[in-house]
Amino acid sequence: MGAESFVLRGDICYSLSPREVRCVEGGYLVCVDGRSAGVFEELPERYAASPLVDCTGRLVIPGLCDIHLHAPQYAFRGLGMDLELLDWLNTHTFPEETRYADLDYAARAYDVFAGDLRRCATTRAVVFGTVHVPATELLMERLEATGLVTYVGKVNMDRNAPERLVETSARSAEATRRWLEDVCGRFERTHPIITPRFTPSVTDGLMAELGALREKYDLPVQSHLSENPSEVSWVKELCPWSSCYADAYDHFGLLGEKTVMAHCVHSTDEEVELLRRTGTYVAHCPQSNAQLASGIAPVRRYLDLGMSVGLGTDVAGGASLSMFRCMADAVAASKLRWRLVDQSLAPLTTQEALWLATVGGGSFFGRVGSFAEGYELDALVLNDSGIRTPRKLTVWERLERFVYLAEEGGRIERKFVAGREVSLD
Amino acid sequence: MGAESFVLRGDICYSLSPREVRCVEGGYLVCVDGRSAGVFEELPERYAASPLVDCTGRLVIPGLCDIHLHAPQYAFRGLGMDLELLDWLNTHTFPEETRYADLDYAARAYDVFAGDLRRCATTRAVVFGTVHVPATELLMERLEATGLVTYVGKVNMDRNAPERLVETSARSAEATRRWLEDVCGRFERTHPIITPRFTPSVTDGLMAELGALREKYDLPVQSHLSENPSEVSWVKELCPWSSCYADAYDHFGLLGEKTVMAHCVHSTDEEVELLRRTGTYVAHCPQSNAQLASGIAPVRRYLDLGMSVGLGTDVAGGASLSMFRCMADAVAASKLRWRLVDQSLAPLTTQEALWLATVGGGSFFGRVGSFAEGYELDALVLNDSGIRTPRKLTVWERLERFVYLAEEGGRIERKFVAGREVSLD
């Protein structure tokens, strides 16, 4: 399926707003030159000549956007979940990331990662690599070959990391510049993103250099923010001049509408206001925030404030690569937060989780995450016949159930990114 | 595989205690007449003539015991997760359970349920039916045919339920007596269990009748306890004479070493002491407790007190039938509880989750849940080769990872209950 103009027939669902999902049973999703021309109950005459992709009886939904995960950590997903963030980084994560100096190891690991990402529900992703330029370029090549659209970052770390991983400030900046020269414009679907690991790993001097590179190359930014209380305290010590943790990025021009900050579990009011004012994205990573005992981010509050929010698996803080699981976890975590922390913030609904995983995160990539006219056409075709029940279900009920049971009877049958089909073999 | 004496070769793991897992790579698990004769690094000469089941390279672990779930709710798993317990019961659960008056519907629904339970990781289960005797007997027939060992309850409800579901006290007791006469001793693997739904659904008079039946037939008991704050308050109003919610069962002789109480999220100190003193089992159901916004049970406290604790999926408060998912959820929930509620109670480890899902719940069925000599031999053979990684892992690391990723690349290849193989077709 190489054509980028076609008509997809199936049971179509997509978010109109955080609370409203449009469902069209036996509808027609029209793709013209890789973009949606809309969803129709009857196929308009003008598209009658387009090739028909017949997915009758299947659910058709927008592709899911994973806006925070770590490619090198995929190798130890599901392992070592016995520590909080800072000890986890030193015990499990940094030693694993050190291995990516070895390009043979990186090739084996990234082959697995890219293959699994290609086959899962994710169509677009914002990805951390490691500090290593060759391994990060290899990762970009592997991801380009998947057909997915991704932002990929060479990580910067010039303090508080093991000797074999830490860079000098000068070499980190220079390696980043060299990497950007190598990869900017080199790929069709795989783009670089400025990636200071997090404030504890990056000196003010290097942060300033990264701010300058971001501006020079007009690049997006990804990092971590207010994930864990010990991390937040540490940043206060490391950047006594900052008014809040987010300020330690903002000061160097690293927040804004093309920045995604993972977690924001423990953000102060001032920090939330700074994120809102700058239009910075929050990547909510509920499974990771549970597994590393970080807490639960107040996503309802961020939505009420009109902030930009998407979902992230945060592999390998989270074990699962499944964005369906991530959606279900977001709903479940919000209910526990309501019960245990703050009953003024209503739990998320499954509808809102769908919105976060599609339009919420998708907007980081442009007009992505919806089937409304003009959006890039990312779509999943879902077979839910293996989730058996004697009941007759509506299209929405079938999708709701799929969110919770994608891995227990659900099957992703086809996947399209910007109108092009991705192989699931 | 009909034989009940054989030798199983594989990478064997089982719990020696909540904190200690024994792992034997390329070991031999010996089954004699349906019971374990132990796990050996080298096969003892005296078993050399036994048939060898060669599962080299596969993980072999004890079967998992799901000690709380609702068979009739399986039909709407993953749906309607937008309410708290009491509204959820009235809106979603009771209307669905009403359908089981229709034996045709029950047959279709229980075929699906029994088939999926047979193929999942569960080897033993403690199951709620509905109030309907014919449907409950049909459920027992279907479960008997799976080869699993289960306790199944005809539910009792004589108040606070819709007209089409509620029984009169006399008819409820009489139907239960008739059902027990029908099914006691009728099946090899499927046994009745006294099942007052929960105090809000059962008058004191009926509770007393059930206590008498329990004693007369020497039966186990299952019910719900302190799941939700509104439920707990309601019980205080309904049973002003009781010293705590658990007392509203204990008063009628319904607690004890053959009773399992689901949830115990909001149990008072007095209630915990009553459960401990009577040896009552707690069925911890972490996914349900999140999805119905109930809270998180203090499982660490129950373990520290030496109480009997197992895990339950609580389908359809929980959407997933997977006991691996249940184990992972138990660990994750305990970390959130540590972070958000009480840092004096350490999070559960994956080792402890394995213990809870095997020995913890298994002991409700007798000598079940371990491969130690004399235990009934319930075993799962797990293929983890689809959970790809470039790393070399220990046997324990492979199992730890399987707990978190069973549904994302893991595969259950074979399943044995009391030494007999269960078909996974």
UniProtKB/TrEMBL annotation, chains A, B:
On whether rRNA-binding is a keyword of this UniProt record, the answer is no
InterPro entries attached to this UniProt entry: Amidohydro-rel, Metal-dep_hydrolase_composite, Metal_Hydrolase, Metallo-dep_hydrolases
Cofactor requirements of the protein: Zn(2+)
Which positions, given as ranges, span the membrane?
none
> Domain Amidohydrolase-related spans what residues?
59-408
> Short name of one Pfam family for this protein?
Amidohydro_1
Going by the UniProt record, its keywords in alphabetical order are:
Hydrolase, Metal-binding, Zinc
Which intervals of the chain form a coiled coil? none
Instruction: Tell me the protein's name.
Output: Amidohydrolase family protein
